[in-house]
């Protein structure tokens, strides 16, 4: 990966994002991605090695279905507020925070926690998380595409 790609990825990651605050907002966003934004995505599980290849449309849809089920099951809150996109209609990056490791995901801390997963159109760079991916999440991730 060259420096301009790394810079672009890092700039996007640290740029402006909107929360998909309401559960209906999240459902509509997933539907938008299912209806035509499936090709050309990298899926990065923070704590694993960053991917070097985009996933297939089928793998992308499988991930969306599984991550949606996971966050709805484990984030039993009135609002969602743990999925963020850099643009709701033409996204190039989506941050998904792990419901079991939220910290201050709203970014109000000096060093906000990393998301659990990042969907991006640009090849990810290694974010080198301070924490190891928990065993239950590592198992979930490993079985997702097998």
What structural keywords apply?
single chain; 146 residues; alpha+beta; 35% helix; disordered N terminus
Percent strand equals 5-15%
**Using only CA atoms, what is the Rg?**
14 Å
SSE pattern, N- to C-terminal? HEHEHEEEH
Shape: globular
Mean pLDDT: 83
**What is the distance, rounded to the nearest whole angstrom, between the alpha carbons of the first and last residues?**
27 Å
Sheet with most strands: strand arrangement? 1-3-4-5-2
Low-confidence stretches: 1-6
Biggest sheet descriptor: 5 strands, antiparallel
Compute the number of strand runs. 5
Helix content: 25-40%
Total DSSP helices: 4
Structural class estimated from helices and strands: alpha+beta
**Total domain units:** 1
What do you see in this structure?
It is a single chain. The chain contains 4 helices and 5 strands; from the N terminus they run H-E-H-E-H-E-E-E-H. The model is unreliable at 1-6 (pLDDT under 50). It starts with a helix and ends with a helix. A hairpin with a 7-residue loop joins strand 3 and strand 4 (93-96). The relative contact order is 0.22. The chain has helices spanning 3-13, 23-34, 57-74, 135-144; strands at residues 18-19, 42-45, 83-85, 93-96, 117-120. It is α+β, with helices and mostly antiparallel strands and 146 residues long. The chain is globular, with a radius of gyration of 14 Å. Helices cover 35% and strands 12% of the residues. It has a 5-stranded antiparallel sheet, with helices on one face. The protein has one domain (3-144).
């Amino acid at each position: 990966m060259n420096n301009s790609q790394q810079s672009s990825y890092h700039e996007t990651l640290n740029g402006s994002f909107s929360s998909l605050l309401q559960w209906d907002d999240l459902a509509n966003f997933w539907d938008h991605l299912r209806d035509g934004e499936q090709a050309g995505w990298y899926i990065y599980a923070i704590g694993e090695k960053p991917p070097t290849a985009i996933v297939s449309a089928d793998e992308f849809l499988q991930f969306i279905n599984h991550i949606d089920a996971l966050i709805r099951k484990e984030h039993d809150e009135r609002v969602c507020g743990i999925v963020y996109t850099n643009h709701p209609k033409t996204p190039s990056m989506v941050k998904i925070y792990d419901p079991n490791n939220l910290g201050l995901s709203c970014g109000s801390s000096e060093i906000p926690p990393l998301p659990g997963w990042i969907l991006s159109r640009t090849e990810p760079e290694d974010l080198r998380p301070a924490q190891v991916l928990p065993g239950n999440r590592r198992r979930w991730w490993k079985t997702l595409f097998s």
